[in-house]
Design brief:
The protein is built from 2 helices and 3 strands. It is α+β, with helices and mostly antiparallel strands.
Length: 61
């Protein structure tokens, strides 16, 4: 069975955000604005996405 994936795009800047929020965005593999990455749909990744959801756009992949 294939792992579920999520497409995550950084749509707002990390500049001036809390260090913990910046760490979550980096932990998802995002480096710059409008970059899109595919991450596995795990509870750990969901937690990071929920924490910084105001910076991201998330789609089912």
């Amino acid at each position: 069975m294939a792992e579920k994936k999520l497409k995550v795009t950084l749509v707002r800047s990390m500049h001036g955000r809390l260090k913990s929020h910046q760490a979550c965005v980096r932990g998802l593999g995002l480096r710059r604005m409008h970059q899109t990455v595919e991450v596995q749909d795990t509870p750990e990744n969901r937690g990071m996405i929920d924490k910084v959801s105001y910076l991201l756009r998330v789609e089912e992949a």
